[in-house]
Design a protein that fits this description.
Bound molecules: S-adenosyl-L-homocysteine, iron/sulfur cluster, FE3-S4 cluster
CATH superfamily of the largest domain: tm_1862 like domain
Helix content: 25-40%
Number of strands: 20
Number of domains: 3
Length: 481
């Protein structure tokens, strides 16, 4: 393979911009590669984490081993996020160190995958000429084919719109107990602040049958919990054929939940992320009827002000959001509700900001991910003149985080003294005599590995835990038996 001098004035090779129809033959498992190692760093959301697990599986099936250290790996892959500017900038600082390594180790392969790769494409090669491969999220399953092209001496950019082929690779999962299952890729919404539709492409749902097959495989491997994933999971199935005799779509998220519910060995099912515009009463009823569906819903509200929701193009009102929450609580009074909020969206007045604070207190969210608005490329809101100053952003973020923490602590108090079912996931890294797991409502919980009867619990066990200690973001307790 041709080598480069690490200097931005180095002329670029003409990169190979791949076409999705071009699929090179698979490279057989290579004994040489079994001496080689890989490293993946993942930024961003659960979707990226799931993609990274599949890409790690591909690398291992090709013969690479996981490196113990980022600075020793032969293949380094950054799976990137561009949801906000600070997320995007992280990758450039990480890349700097690897570019230095490449000067003395020209065989090092550097890959940028994920949403920054999709957003920047070839421009990323101009900025960092040392890169070997730039690949958008729709190409994650094609990593092996793309690496063969790199092995053939090409610098490769794979960012074209691509039909995501059903994945036949075994993902290398970080957890052995809780697994992600992608059910829909992409997003067709047009929220005016959001870069996701332009980097993740059009919605593509997997069939109910292939989702079921993957969940059965996970169960065979010992997994006990699955989380179904989609950027807008309520859109599941709208690109699939299938209308029932009554004229209703029969491939909705609700149908999918009924379809996959009874897989033996799987004890818990979660799903994310829900969109208030499409969250239906039928879905709420299904969640309350199906025992394995956990009582935790992540439903981003973004703002507590109707005019702002309109300028965000979210397609619902605060009143509709409240109705959804009360319908959930009618059927599942103890359900945990988490949300995302953006502060300092263009034009946000102090009154509008305060309406968001009031809504947080009123709803009593269990958890809120807050962020100050960050203008993103190719999004309408980035071009509006009514941007809020940086100092206001910092100020509002501080203020909202205080309310969020207070509300979360208040919500957490309800667990004091209660008995909760916890799925043990692994050891507490800070105290090996304890296991860590989650309640059905997704509360992180630590408890003694040894029960009162002397029984030693292991990852994968469902344990009844009496909660003795409550903090803002976690619980501690002891097994009942
Ligand atoms: N699909 C989900 C979330 C997508 S991104 C939804 O529809 O809600 C995760 C969160 O990042 C969003 O909920 C939003 O709160 C935040 N976010 C997205 N774009 C942002 C931007 N430009 N600036 C600040 N926060 C943003
Ligand atoms: Fe972004 Fe909106 Fe799609 Fe969520 S629903 S990913 S916020 S465009
Ligand atoms: Fe980030 Fe891409 Fe997810 S932009 S939040 S990694 S879809």
């Amino acid at each position: 393979m041709e080598t480069y001098q690490s200097s931005s004035s180095t002329p670029l090779k003409v990169p190979l911009v791949t076409s999705s129809t071009k699929n090179l033959p698979k490279s057989p498992y290579s004994p040489e590669r079994s001496q080689s190692s890989y490293w993946i760093t993942t930024f961003g959301c659960q979707m990226n984490k799931a993609d990274s697990e599949r890409m790690a599986g591909i690398l291992e099936s090709m013969g690479y081993n996981q490196a113990s250290n980022e600075l020793e790996a032969d293949v380094v892959l950054y799976n990137t996020c561009t949801i906000r500017d600070n997320a995007e900038q992280k990758v450039y600082s990480y890349l700097g160190r690897q570019v230095l390594r490449k000067q003395s180790n020209p065989n090092l392969k550097l890959i940028v995958a994920g949403c920054v790769a999709q957003q920047e494409g070839e421009a990323l090669l101009r900025r960092v000429p040392e890169l070997d491969l730039v690949m958008g999220p729709q190409h994650a399953n094609r990593l092996e084919t793309l690496l063969i092209q790199v092995d053939n001496g090409q610098q490769v950019v794979a960012t074209d719109e691509h039909h995501i082929m059903e994945d036949l690779t075994t993902a290398r999962r970080d957890s052995k107990i809780c697994g992600w299952v992608n059910v829909i890729y992409g997003c067709n919404e047009r929220c005016t602040y959001c870069v996701v539709p332009s980097v993740r492409g059009k919605e593509q749902s997997r069939t109910k049958q292939s989702v079921l097959k993957e969940i059965k495989e996970l169960s065979n491997q010992g997994f006990r919990e699955v989380t179904l994933l989609g950027q807008n999971i309520d859109a599941y199935g709208r690109d699939l054929p299938g209308i029932s005799s009554s004229g209703r779509r029969e491939n909705t998220l609700t149908d999918l939940l009924y379809f996959i519910h009874n897989v033996k060995g799987i004890e818990r099912i979660r799903f994310a992320t829900s969109h208030p515009r499409y969250f239906t009463e039928r879905l709420i009823k299904a969640c309350s009827e199906l025992p394995k569906i956990c009582e935790h819903f992540h439903i981003p509200v973004q703002s507590g002000d109707n005019d702002l929701l309109k300028s965000m193009s979210r397609g619902y009102t605060v009143e509709r959001y409240r109705r959804i929450i009360s319908q959930i609580r009618e059927r599942m009074p103890d359900a945990a509700i988490s949300t995302d909020v953006i502060v300092a969206f263009p034009g946000e007045s102090i009154d509008q900001f305060e309406r968001t604070l009031d809504l947080i207190e009123e709803i009593g969210f269990d958890q809120v991910n807050t962020a100050a608005y960050s203008p993103r490329p190719n999004t309408p809101a980035a071009t509006w003149p009514n941007q809020i100053s940086e100092s206001q952003k910092v100020e509002r973020l501080k203020e909202i985080n205080k309310i969020v923490e207070k509300t979360a602590r208040r919500r957490n108090c309800r667990y004091q003294g209660r008995i909760e079912e916890v799925l043990a996931e692994g050891a507490n890294s800070k105290n090996p005599s304890q296991l860590m797991g989650r309640t059905r409502t997704n509360r992180l919980t630590f408890f003694d590995r040894q029960g009162q009867s002397g029984k030693i619990f292991s990852p994968g066990d469902l344990v009844q835990v009496k909660i003795s200690d409550v903090r803002s973001f976690s619980l501690t307790g002891n097994p009942l038996t």
